[in-house]
Amino acid sequence: MGASKNPHDDISEVLLDEAKIAARVKVLGAEITAAYPGNDELVLVSVLKGSLVFVGDLMRAIDRNVRIDVMEVSSYGGGNTESSGTVRILKDLSGTIEGRDVLIVEDIIDTGITLNYLTNYLAGKSPRSVKIVTLLSKPARRVVEIPVEWMGFEIPDKFVVGYGLDFAERYRNLTCIGVLKTEKQKA
Ligand code: IMP
Ligand code: MG
C-alpha cells in the first residue's frame, strides 16, 4: 500500500508536535553554545538526509560561529524499517576536521550502528573532539552503546517519520514527528 496524497493521513499518532520540537531544539542549542565557549572552529557534521531539518533549526539556535559539513550514510535498504547492520558512506566530508571540535548531528539513534561507525570514522581524521547530538533515541533497540552528549527526546520502539525522518524517502517534510501506520510500513 503506497503513501497517501496527504502525508498526514499516514500517521497513526503524533508523538512530538512542532512547538514541542522547537522548544527542545532551543534548549539543545543553548547547551551546545555553553559547551563550546571559545572561538575555535566547531564543525557540525550533519548526517544526511534524516538530520536536514534538525540541523537547519539547531544551527540557528547555536549562538557562536559554526561550520557545516555533511555526510551521507546508509544503513537501511529503501523501504525497509530494519537496519541492515552495514553502513555505507554515500557522501564524505568536503572540508578537513583535523584539530577541530566536531559535533555529529543525527536525527535518531536506533541500534547505534550508524553512529558507532561514524564516530570511529571521524575520530580517525584527528579532530580535537567528536561529540554527538541526536534529536531522537530509541533506547529499546540499542545494539551498540555509544556516548551521546545531547539528546532531544527518548521515544518508544515505533517507526517514526517527519521533521526529516523518512520511510522510503517520504514524509520528511512533515512538521511533526509521528508514528507511521503499520500498513504503510511496506514498500
Ligand atoms: P541505527 O544505525 O540503527 O542507529 O539507525 C540510525 C538510522 O536509521 C537513523 O539515522 C535513521 O536514518 C534510521 N532510522 C532509525 N529508526 C528510524 C525511524 O523510526 N524512522 C526513520 N528512520 C529511522
Ligand atoms: Mg539518519
Distance between the termini: 8 Å
**What proportion of the residues is helical, as a percent range?**
10-25%
Bound molecule kinds, no repeats: inosinic acid, magnesium ion
Unreliable stretches: none
- Class derived from helix and strand content: alpha/beta
Largest sheet: 6 strands, mixed
| Element-level helix/strand string | EHEHEEEHEEEE
Rg computed from alpha carbons, rounded to a whole number of angstroms: 16 Å
Shape: globular
Major sheet: arrangement of strands: 4-3-2-5-6-7
- Mean model confidence by pLDDT: 94
Tally of contiguous helical segments: 3
Give a short synopsis of this structure.
With 187 residues, the protein is α/β, with parallel strands linked by helices. 21% of the residues lie in helices and 29% in strands.
What does this entry look like structurally?
With 187 residues, the chain is α/β, with parallel strands linked by helices. It is 21% helix and 29% strand. It contains three helices and nine strands. The protein has a six-stranded mixed beta sheet, sandwiched between helices. Strands 1-9-8 form a three-stranded antiparallel beta sheet. β2 (42-48), α2 (52-61) and β3 (67-74) form a beta-alpha-beta unit. α1 (18-35) crosses α2 (52-61). The radius of gyration is 16 Å and the shape is globular. The site of inosinic acid has 17 residues, from β5, α3 and β8. Residues 50, 75-76, 83, 106-114, 159-161, 165 line the site of inosinic acid.
